[in-house]
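FORM 7B: Structural annotation worksheet

SECTION A. Query
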Amino acid sequence: MEQLEEELTCPICCCLFDDPRVLLCSHSFCKKCLEGLLEGHRGPIFRTPFKCPTCRKESPHNGANSLQINYSLRDIVEKYSKIRVLPKMPSCAQHCGQPLNMFCATDLKLICGFCATTDDHKGHRFCSLEDAYEQEKAAFEELLRGVESWRSADMLSCLETLQSSRKKALQSVTKDAEKVTEYFDKLIGALESKKNEILSDVETVKLVVMQAYDPEISKLSAALEEQRRALSIADSFRSVSDPSCFLQQMQEFREKFRVLQETTLPPKKEMDVGPLVRNFDVKKWDSLRLREVDKISVPHENGSYRVGDSRRASAPKWIVVFMMSLLLSTLLLLLRWHNDLTAHMKPHLTTASVHLSHTTDYLQGLTSMCTGLITAEMRHTTMIDRSAATERVDHGSSSLSKAFSRLFIACGAGESKEILVGFFWTTVVA
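SECTION B. Predicted structure
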């Protein structure tokens, strides 16, 4: 059909021929198309020959009306136009290109000629499309009445109920989504607030570290600068032969050296800048629940991390302080008594001198051990109740009395400085 339509199309307007006129070369064109082309070939005296738009062959003319009508082509175009208006017959899906020109009255469906010969329609009753049309037209009216009498009211009611339930469910889901969004927005806000708070404390720790180290660093840097200046002065007047100039430079050099001698070196060990740095332990945060995330403590809160109101029980420091004071007083009395005793006991003078020379070491060791005792007491206080703590104090006092007795007996026997160390370790262990 497409090829036929192409043959029935005018080359000028690309539409179906309308009143086709034929030239001497046998090519046909629409009358209106030729009139438009012949308009330019009208001369005042005579008409010039017209060239065919397809083959360029000249044809004499006296206007479009003088050209011969192509009757056969006009009839074909008219018939083709009528056929093209008719609906296109559907083709069979199983047999390509075969029109559905038969109706199976058994299956109530359109079929082609090949379908009628297959086993699928063996023994079926067939009829023409016109007879099937009359039968199905009557059946259509009956089906239409059935559709019209269908329970549309019940279905509409059910539809409204479902739509209402759907709307309520969506509203509930929307509220839940808003709650989730609000909750996590608050959670994110709490995390951001806690992060900013901790980072602020980190900056404070930085300031503490800088305040602890910067003065000593500046002091040492200044001392090194003084040394550099002193060496520069020495290089400048080393070869001076004039006595007055040399003595003047020597005086300045000696002053620089005096300043260097007065500069004391700080301890090389790391300085203690407080508990803040040691308390940044992020591993403790892993055990927190989400609802407790805003309760993460920061270093400025009692120098330790805590969750909620749960704090570590404070250790009975007064017991340790009392024991330390009692030990210090006793040791001082014993040392004084020992000094008086050695004044009358010449053989033991050397031992007493050693004791006196190392008194500072004893006291420093005592302080360190007391500090360890405080730390140990703080660690174990949370694991015992008050009654157990009372028994521990009574037991410690009893052990302390026994240790004092052993100390007096040992000192009376004239033992050396190992007595004091043994006494203190016995007391701490007890």
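SECTION C. Observations
The longest strand covers residues 20-22. The mean pLDDT is 71.

SECTION D. Sign-off
Analyst initials: ____
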